């Protein structure tokens, strides 16, 4: 009992403290960053439609690609960085997917719920190769579900604006989590996420990575498919795009970005990040299959909220993702202390072949 009481007391305090922090953070964002300062050129909304067409023309609402030539964005001369969107499916790959979908539909006729819940496609090794279309044979609700128009307490969704929704890139009304990562205009322009980027197999009954179908108990790795009682592993998924702005490694940036950007941005320079990141630092970035590197750079010309959105602007965590540190042209030969343990390449499963990332 004693222990339970102290845990409850602690949770109470922690809960209160984090509420206060969130409230302060929200206020801060409104003051320094929200659409309330008409002098900030970064607040001029990005017009995504202009930029998106070339890249998204071949995509449907499930984020599924049809064949189209990827675009290469060159930044600073031939020797400078190059950004390429991931390749879209070839006709042969597309045919393979359609075949797999047809076979799956055939095989699950009359399947009962219990068997469907434990369908082998949910688990390793099958899930690693599953296409979105295969998952969606049984999970159409993921693409179609809408959030409530009014909360149970009667608050209309249209009347509330969370701090992260004040980013220039945020468009449209309240939508579901899956919509915001697979179907929103901004998601389709900047990301190429698949179901199995986040879902790598979880047992809906045990809810622990130590007990999964087809795996010896207590043999899970240090970076499991998912963490206790969750369906994904946030450290290898969410944290990449929802961590803290890593200001402590950025010489020349003081304090928070909403504060720092005020002195760095004007009408000619709507993206202060690019002052340093266009040519000078870490220009070898985003060469991974789940991002659209070229489209990101194109969009980002108009607003730093494009960059900040994935690097602090929607911060759900107190820490930052330990990004790999890809060597870039003219980088200092000495590795700073904070970077000594950093990988110098993205994880092999996400690396793009035949791009500037060597
Ligand atoms: C044969 C149909 C079928 C296929 C194919 C399928 N699922 Fe499922 N899945 C189900 C059913 C049924 C449930 C249980 C739903 C419920 O309990 O309401 C489920 C549950 C889930 C859950 C929730 C698990 C939990 O812990 O509660 C996730 C996540 C999931 N599926 C993801 C996927 C992904 C990703 C794919 C593709 C790799 C996929 N599913 C393919 C039928 C399927
Ligand atoms: C950006 C990461 C991400 C992507 C991409 C993603 N999911 Fe999810 N999914 C989640 C998270 C997080 C949850 C909620 C987990 C929890 O409640 O613990 C979830 C929950 C689910 C659930 C069960 C709960 C529910 O909402 O019904 C299903 C089924 C599911 N996802 C299927 C899919 C399918 C199918 C796809 C691909 C079309 C997909 N997901 C893509 C992260 C993702
Ligand atoms: C590759 C980058 C990326 C990853 C990985 C990612 N997100 Fe996001 N997330 C985004 C972007 C970009 C948006 C904004 C989309 C938009 O504006 O339409 C977003 C929006 C959101 C929102 C706001 C939804 C709303 O209603 O406005 C939530 C909540 C969220 N993400 C949670 C998560 C969680 C939880 C995970 C891990 C399971 C995750 N994200 C993984 C990039 C990512
Ligand atoms: C005054 C220059 C400057 C500005 C402005 C700036 N950065 Fe940086 N940034 C740096 C430097 C320097 C590094 C570290 C380079 C290295 O690896 O040695 C860095 C590193 C990073 C990293 C990698 C962090 C890590 O832990 O590996 C990210 C991500 C990043 N910046 C994003 C941004 C974004 C997004 C913005 C704008 C919102 C921005 N930066 C603005 C100078 C800047
Ligand atoms: C949709 C989300 C998203 C957007 C938009 C985005 N980033 Fe990133 N960024 C990431 C992810 C995820 C990684 C890690 C990729 C990897 O593992 O190689 C990353 C990596 C980086 C790195 C580390 C580079 C290295 O050495 O590998 C820097 C610097 C960076 N981003 C800066 C920026 C800047 C500047 C912008 C705007 C021009 C931007 N990001 C826009 C998600 C995003």
Largest sheet: 2 strands, antiparallel
Strand content: under 5%
Mean pLDDT: 83
N-to-C order of helices and strands? HHEEHHHHHHHHHHHHH
Helix content: 25-40%
- Uncertain stretches: 6-67
Query: What's the structural domain tally?
Result: 1
Cα shape: globular
The spatial strand order of the largest sheet comes to 1-2
Query: What gap, in angstroms, lies between the N and C termini?
Result: 58 Å
- Which secondary-structure class do the elements indicate? mainly alpha
Radius of gyration: 22 Å
Bound ligands, named by name, code or SMILES: heme C
- Discrete helix count: 15
Number of strands: 2
3D structure, described in words:
The structure is a single chain. The chain has helices at 2-32, 48-56, 91-107, 113-117, 126-129, 132-138, 141-144, 177-182, 185-190, 195-198, 239-242, 257-264, 273-277, 293-300, 305-310, and strands at residues 72-74, 82-84. By secondary structure, the protein is mainly α. It has one domain (38-146, 161-358). The chain has a two-stranded antiparallel sheet. A hairpin with a 7-residue loop joins strand 1 and strand 2 (82-84). The model is unreliable at 6-67 (pLDDT under 50). One heme C is lined by residues 165, 169-170, 174-175, 177, 180-181, 184, 186-187, 190-191, 198, 232, 234, 237-238, 240-242, 290, 309-310, 314.
């Amino acid at each position: 009992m004693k222990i339970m009481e102290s845990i409850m007391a602690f949770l109470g305090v922690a809960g209160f403290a984090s509420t206060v922090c969130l409230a302060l953070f929200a206020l801060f964002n409104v003051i320094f960053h929200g659409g309330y300062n008409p002098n900030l050129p970064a607040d001029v909304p990005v017009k995504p439609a202009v930029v998106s067409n070339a890249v998204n023309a071949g995509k449907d609402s499930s984020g599924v690609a049809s064949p189209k030539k990827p675009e290469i964005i060159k930044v600073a001369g031939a020797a400078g960085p190059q950004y390429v969107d991931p390749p879209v499916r070839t006709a042969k790959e597309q045919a393979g997917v359609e075949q797999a979908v047809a076979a799956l539909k055939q095989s699950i006729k009359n399947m009962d719920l219990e068997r469907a819940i434990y369908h082998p496609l949910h688990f390793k090794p099958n899930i690693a190769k599953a296409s979105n279309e295969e998952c969606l044979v049984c999970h159409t609700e993921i693409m179609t579900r809408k959030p409530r128009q009014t909360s149970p307490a009667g608050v209309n969704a249209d009347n509330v604006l969370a701090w992260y929704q004040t980013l220039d890139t945020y468009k449209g009304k309240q939508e579901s989590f899956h919509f915001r990562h697979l179907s929103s205009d901004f998601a389709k322009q900047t990301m190429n996420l698949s179901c199995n980027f986040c879902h790598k197999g979880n047992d809906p009954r045990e809810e622990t990575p130590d007990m999964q179908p087809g795996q010896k108990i207590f043999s899970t790795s240090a970076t499991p498919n998912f963490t206790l009682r969750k369906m994904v592993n946030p450290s290898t998924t969410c944290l990449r795009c929802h961590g803290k702005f890593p200001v402590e490694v950025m010489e020349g940036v003081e304090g928070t970005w909403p504060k720092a950007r005020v002195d760095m941005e004007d009408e000619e320079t709507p993206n202060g990040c690019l002052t340093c990141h266009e040519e000078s630092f870490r220009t070898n970035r985003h060469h991974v299959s789940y991002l659209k590197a070229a489209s990101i750079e194109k969009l980002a010309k108009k607003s730093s909220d494009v960059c900040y959105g994935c690097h602090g602007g929607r911060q759900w965590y107190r820490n930052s993702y330990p990004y790999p540190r890809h060597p870039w042209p003219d980088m200092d030969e000495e590795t700073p202390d904070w970077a000594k343990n950093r990988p110098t390449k993205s994880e092999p499963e996400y690396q793009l072949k035949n791009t500037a990332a060597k």
